[in-house]
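Worked example

This section walks through a single chain of length 146. The input is the sequence exactly as stored; nothing has been trimmed or padded.
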Amino acid sequence: MSSSEAPTERDSEPEIATVVTRLPVAPSLDPALEHLRLPKQGQTLENNRRIVFISGIAILVGLVSGVVAKVLLDLIDLITNLSFFGTVSLGYHSPSLSPFAWTLILAPIAGGVAVGLIARYGHAAVRGDGIPEVMEQVLYNESRVH
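Given that input, the structure is written out below as tokens.
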């Protein structure tokens, strides 16, 4: 470096002469860990088998989840087509294209009326927040609502 050049940040960094073989999580813990004198855990055949087994389970869960998701989407399409178009089909059709699309506004109204009637004339456990009280009744009264 010549005298006319200003020192850069890269020039002021110390050179690292050692090779890091593990990922440091908290470098400040190194002295404490060395003081404990824990045995080094290396790769063993048993660890590799476990990793392969857990990976296999993860792949299986992913595949099953994908199939279940596809079945649920097809079921939603089937019910939508039956409800709005009167056809048995797994293809996607927007409910807004149905001649009965105007009835969509009635669904939340009917739900609100049903919940209001249940809360007013239903069991006392349903009043208030609803679900937490019912869950408490099921939990403490062995699934019987009195």
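What to look for: Helices lie at 9-12, 30-36, 45-85, 106-121, 131-140.
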